[in-house]
Amino acid sequence: MADVEDLYRAQYGMDGRPFGVLADAELSYCGPGVVRAHAALEYGLMTGAPFIVLTGDAGTGKTSLLLRIMADADPAQRVVLMSGLRQGTGSVLPWVLQALGEDIAADAAPTELFTRLQDALIAEYAAGRRMVLVVDEAQSLSTAALDELRILSNINTAADQLLQVVLSGHSLLRDRLRAPELLGLAQRVGVWAALPPLSRAALADYVAARLAAVGGAEDLFEPAALSLIHSVTSGLPRSVNQLCEMTMIFALSETAPTIGAALVQQVLEQDMFLAPLAAAPDRPSGPATRPGRLRLASGA
Fold first, then answer.
1. Which long-range contacts does 100-104 make (Cβ < 8 Å, 24+ apart)?
2. Reduced to 3 DSSP states, what percent helix, strand and coil does the chain have, rounded to the nearest 5?
């Protein structure tokens, strides 16, 4: 993408891509909804809540917020992120241990894995740290896997919680946790946080912040263009990024100092953007046809 970045630099004076679609803690937007969710997560971590739940529609920026939480983690916390686990993958113990950087033998017995996790948590506690396990896309976990996480949260001392679990996922996650069989887990949730889509005003601030972060003009997009973008994307940051970037690519051949609604409309008319569907109730997925894959496991 170096050539595109050179064009951005030449035409807009930017030193990077303001609207990349990958989650990025450095470019995450701190609007009202994000600030509230961030404060709720920090409160849960500070108070030692056994479980913290973060929900939001796909594309609202949950992963970016989680990466920010990890980047800003207190030295007294070791935060690990586990993502990619799906229904039908069996026990979560191997995945948790792999997220901690442990090597797992294929034939390891569950009792051995549990003992290794317990020893790891005790070692972290002895070093003055609490383990925080962040589970992304948690709505995809089976009921058995979610209940197993509840059991793992029982590893504690008389006074301190050795393991905190942050469950992040779509709105279905809240519905899943209302099920009678997960009542024990729901009762241990100390904080419920949610990320809403961007309002029209927040979208303008979001776009301006992303542009400013790479040295661009905050008013590059005209108000009419922002209104059209909000209407088409429903205020979902990931979709906003996609449409804004495609519009900027179209604008590279233009000499106008700002981007108007007509240019956004060109992108839409040429089918260069797929608008998100209206949010619909999620449904639990069926058993996985192949083992899940750990997309990201990192420790601090």
1. 100/131, 100/299, 101/297, 101/299
2. 45, 15, 40
Distance CA 213, CA 62 (A): 20
Instruction: Tell me the CATH number for domain 32-196+283-299.
Output: 3.40.50.300
Domain ranges of the chain: 2-19+198-269, 32-196+283-299
Q: Annotate 9-47 with b (16+ C-beta within 10 A) or e (fewer).
A: eeebebeebbbeeebbeebbbebebbeebbebbbebbee
Distance of alpha carbon 20 from alpha carbon 78, whole angstroms? 28
**Local structure of 260: helix, strand or coil:** coil
Contact 278, 231 (CB under 8 A): no
Residues paired with 149 in a beta bridge: none
**Inter-residue contact 36 to 151 (CB < 8 Å):** no
Q: Token pair for residue 196? A: 């809403």
In DSSP terms, 160 is beta-bridged to: none
Q: From first to last of the 300 residues of the chain, give the pLDDT tens digit.
A: 457 778 888 888 888 888 876 655 555 567 888 899 999 999 999 998 999 999 999 888 898 889 888 888 888 889 998 877 766 567 888 888 988 888 888 788 889 999 999 999 999 999 998 899 999 999 989 899 999 999 998 887 667 788 999 999 998 899 999 999 999 999 999 999 999 999 999 999 999 999 998 899 999 999 999 999 999 999 999 999 999 999 998 888 777 789 999 999 999 999 888 887 655 444 443 333 333 333 333 333
Does the global pTM surpass 0.85? no
